[in-house]
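Page 47, continued from p. 46.
Same chain as before, 457 aa.
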Amino acid sequence: MSSSTELLAPLDLAFWHLESPTHPLHLGALAHFGPVPGGPGHEPPLDVLDLLARRAAAVPRLRMRVRDVLLPVGGAAWSADPDFDVSRHVREITLPGSDFPAESTRIAAELMESPVERGLPPWEMYLLTGAPDGSFAVLVKLHHALADGMRAVAIGAGIFDEIAAARRPARRPRPVPPRSWLPDPGSLLGLARARLGDLGRAVEVGASVLGSSVARAGRLDDPAAVLTAESSGTRRLATATLPLDRVHRIRRTTGGTANDVLLAVAAGALRRWFDGRGLPLPGTDPRALVPVSRRRPGTPGSGPGNSLSGYLLDLPVTEPDPEARLAAVRLAMDRNKAAGPSRGAGAVALLADRLPPLAHRFGAPLASGAARLLFDLLVTQVPLPRSALSLGGAPLRALFPMAPLARGQSLAIAMSPYGGQVHIGLVADGEAVPDLDALAAAFTAELDLLDPVNVTP
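Result:
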């Protein structure tokens, strides 16, 4: 295997095979930028597209495509695309300028419906222009096999002025001497022991996942099933913005973490949304999968690809008191952290790490609908750099993350703090959740219930 080829990690391989032509599995972000200083006033300078393309092409990970390999059986590998052409990945779309933010959200939802081309490096970027004041937006799509949320931030950050300026020149890869794919006799014993260890951990994690699935067997006819639906192939996107200082003020008053506060706000927003739809509250609280990164600097998990597990959280939608909702979230998350990320259905990502490539290749299509048996929706937080960012001198105003929808699920919520705000991206099945804007508006109303200080009488 050459130095420019790298096997897909087991979880990455699972995400690669979970996708189908009618159900894409990419994550994304919609970034809004202010006008370029000194720009013409009606549109960004023409070199913004060229700048975006050059910086994206300079990220080594974005030049890699997926190819099948003979060994291990059923496996696949990342390899440099010898015919890489950045113009096939970076495009410009000019939108009507009358309501640019709404138009950019609408077109982003449409663009998120289609899968990235699998024969090419699996990513796309779109420069969205047409705002009267010269502001613009950039939509980024990355296949989930390429990166988890934290890795996606590291990859996507390469387009920003501050990150590009600090990027070191790529080192020439050291030649790797050819070697046989067969292990030497001395390593066979260690290899066997490692596989037995993996098997033992897989059984332990699998039992935990199965136990959580059985516990949910009676929940499928609940009104919360509105959050699960057969995929229509359509996408709807909505956004919300919350002041970060208010989130932290609540945290300082009640204890816990800022993420606890945001999860409680999400629970209240769902409750308000159920009520606005005229639906009865579910008999049992909808269960959220809260991804947990296992990525740590200087550890094997800090490399490329996906490195995550997850916690399960029953969002207290049936609790009428907002402070009690926050207390319930804080208690449940404390229990999750004490138990660790290898317990419950959220540990299914760890189980994927223990399976051989052939199991992912043939098992992923069969298991693609299993998510609805484990949880009802995804709620994730994607951290961003704390420093101010820009593109071609245009300041980044907001970045709304977009999480992928699991098959059979209607809603995913992603949140990113940046610039004193929490930017919330809601992705939904377009037919199952046509009123996604109402849910987005409910986030602000629910924050006001927990922190009434800034609410105007």
